[in-house]
Design goal:
single chain; mainly beta; six-stranded mixed β-sheet; 2 helices; 6 strands; globular
């Protein structure tokens, strides 16, 4: 049945363009929301700093921040909590993000996130269990 779809809106009257191939990096959000070791003054800021397209902006993001007990935090976006973070504009996200993906590893997933002010950015969300982790309501560092 899916092969027979012809791009016409369904009963809900919603219509969305079909994207073919890999996403164009120019369409990517050009900002990173950092809440842990990638924030300014933190040990891994040196990975981000050369790619910053302007000064980071302090803000808060909805979510819960946890101490993994391993020397870095874990963010679970959404919910009622407010996590201190830095919004970093990026000059060339297509060049930086693969480096950060490797740095963050399999415990995190890079996701698009829309902030309360409508800004769309990338954030690394924790994808593993948080059982046994301590919440960090004041942000990182603990």
């Amino acid at each position: 049945e899916a092969r027979m779809l012809d791009g016409e809106p369904g009963e809900d009257r919603l219509d969305a363009p079909t994207v073919h191939g890999a996403p164009n990096p120019d369409d990517w959000p050009a900002a990173l929301l950092a809440y842990g070791l990638l924030m300014p003054t933190q040990p891994s800021w040196s990975l981000v700093a050369p790619h910053a397209g302007g000064p980071p902006r302090r803000m808060h993001v909805a979510g819960t921040l946890y101490d993994t007990g391993l020397g870095w935090p874990a963010l679970v976006p959404g919910g009622r909590g407010e996590v201190p973070a830095a919004l970093v504009p990026l000059r060339d996200p297509a060049r930086l993000l693969p480096v950060l993906d490797e740095y963050e590893g399999p415990d995190y997933r890079r996701v698009r996130h829309t902030l309360a002010d409508g800004t769309v950015c990338w954030v690394y969300a924790w994808v593993r269990s948080t059982v046994g982790f301590r919440e960090l309501p004041g942000g990182w560092p603990p």
